């Protein structure tokens, strides 16, 4: 669950696309009202529906909707949520969010023991997240950069089945890829290929509310130090923020981070985790499964963000982002090369029909997306699928890599 694969592999073949019903497109940018700084990882959804997406690093988003009716809901941690009318003229929206201020009257005194808070949140998981299975449509993207240049880009639309949260396991949860593509640099200088184990299945593997081995295992919790930090707001609701870091008493407890818990109903809404890098050998074991002979691997960062969103009745997993930074060099070479591997996945819609487990399209936790998906060069590949808007640098990289393919 906690490991990644890094392998040398250079391949590129072609695949065919799929069609979908025509939808309307709504795009825009979300910014801080005071600083005018673009805000990333902002939740953008259609009010009263399950359609949603997330802003990219430049604050941009795109939504695909059946009709240009209703309102768009924009929410972000530490900001007041905004409701914006759907644009009728098709022009991009420019949405300003105002930082939320915590008034003294809003703060409810809760137990000052963070472990007590966490255990109460764990006890309420089946009630807060539901006991019935749900099927979602998701968009997934993974990228690898060598220094500042993209050398690998892969994306997919998939279906995600989440069983009830009365099960403390994701064994029966599955992901099925509906449509996907990958682009790989064919430059002779790009001799190292990077594979990330798990791909879209990471949203099940890293669902820390259900798979508690990351931080919420009752035994592992004894090896962490917890403290209550300054509260924040998410979706205009007060969140108790609990910080954690290892005591250093267990070799398997290696994360620093924060957990956000709803002040009223004890729902766990978000977690931010970073792997301890003090022991390079242990960090390497957590990040690396395989490498070519003669290659030296130096870990620099492994971080994760997992968030949940309420649909009015239950909370559901909404967004996942992982970032891994490392450097590699070959023996007898003077300089090392820096790499950054990023995965992002967002739930874009909740589907009404819960299907049985699909057959060959199921993506396994030990699979790598690199091996499962072929090259695709159609510029209109995504058509009306709801996606995470690519950054300008990523758009340029797609065009640059595509030029090297037939």
Structural write-up:
- By secondary structure, this protein is mainly beta.
- The chain is built from six helices and 18 strands.
- Strands 8, 9, 10, 11, 12, 13, 14, 15, 16, 17 and 18 form an eleven-stranded antiparallel beta sheet that branches.
- A hairpin with a 6-residue loop joins strand 5 and strand 6.
- The protein starts with 23 loop residues before the first strand and ends with a helix.
- 37% of the residues are buried.
- The N terminus is likely disordered.
Q: Keyphrases for this structure?
A:
mainly beta; eleven-stranded antiparallel sheet; four-stranded antiparallel sheet; 18 strands; disordered N terminus
């Amino acid at each position: 669950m906690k490991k990644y694969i890094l392998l040398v592999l250079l391949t590129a073949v072609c695949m065919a696309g799929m069609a979908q019903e025509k939808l309307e497109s709504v795009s825009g940018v979300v910014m801080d009202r005071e600083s005018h700084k673009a805000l990333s990882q902002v939740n953008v959804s259609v009010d009263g529906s399950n359609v949603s997406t997330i802003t990219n690093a430049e604050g941009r988003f795109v939504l695909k909707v059946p009709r240009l009716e209703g309102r768009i809901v924009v929410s972000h941690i530490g900001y007041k949520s905004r409701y914006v009318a759907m644009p009728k003229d098709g022009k991009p929206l420019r949405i300003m969010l105002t930082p939320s201020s915590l008034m003294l009257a809003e703060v409810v005194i809760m137990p000052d023991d963070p472990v007590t808070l966490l255990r109460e949140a764990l006890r309420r998981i089946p009630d807060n997240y539901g006991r019935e299975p749900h099927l979602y449509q998701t968009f997934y993207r993974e990228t690898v950069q060598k220094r500042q240049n993209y050398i690998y880009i892969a994306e997919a639309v998939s279906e995600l089945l989440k069983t009830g949260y009365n099960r403390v396991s994701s064994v029966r949860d599955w992901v099925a890829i509906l449509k996907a593509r990958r682009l790989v640099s064919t430059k002779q200088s790009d001799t190292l290929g990077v594979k990330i184990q798990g791909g879209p299945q990471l949203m099940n593997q890293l669902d820390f509310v259900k798979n508690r081995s990351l931080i919420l295992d009752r035994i592992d919790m004894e090896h962490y130090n917890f403290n209550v930090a300054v509260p924040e707001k998410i979706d205009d609701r007060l969140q108790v923020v609990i910080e954690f870091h290892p005591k250093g008493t267990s070799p398997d407890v290696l994360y620093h981070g924060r957990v956000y818990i709803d002040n009223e109903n004890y729902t766990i809404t978000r977690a931010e985790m970073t792997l301890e890098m003090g022991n390079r050998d242990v960090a390497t074991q957590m990040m690396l499964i395989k490498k070519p002979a003669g290659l030296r691997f130096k870990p620099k960062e492994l971080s994760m963000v997992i968030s949940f969103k309420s649909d009015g009745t239950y909370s559901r997993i909404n967004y996942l982002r992982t970032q891994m930074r490392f450097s590699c060099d070959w023996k007898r070479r003077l300089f090392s090369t820096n790499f950054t591997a990023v995965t992002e996945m967002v739930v874009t819609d909740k589907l009404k029909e819960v299907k049985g487990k699909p057959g060959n399209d199921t993506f396994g936790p030990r699979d790598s997306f690199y091996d499962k998906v072929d090259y695709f060069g159609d510029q209109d590949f995504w058509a009306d699928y709801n996606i995470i808007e690519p950054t300008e640098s990523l758009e340029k990289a797609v065009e640059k890599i595509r030029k090297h393919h037939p």
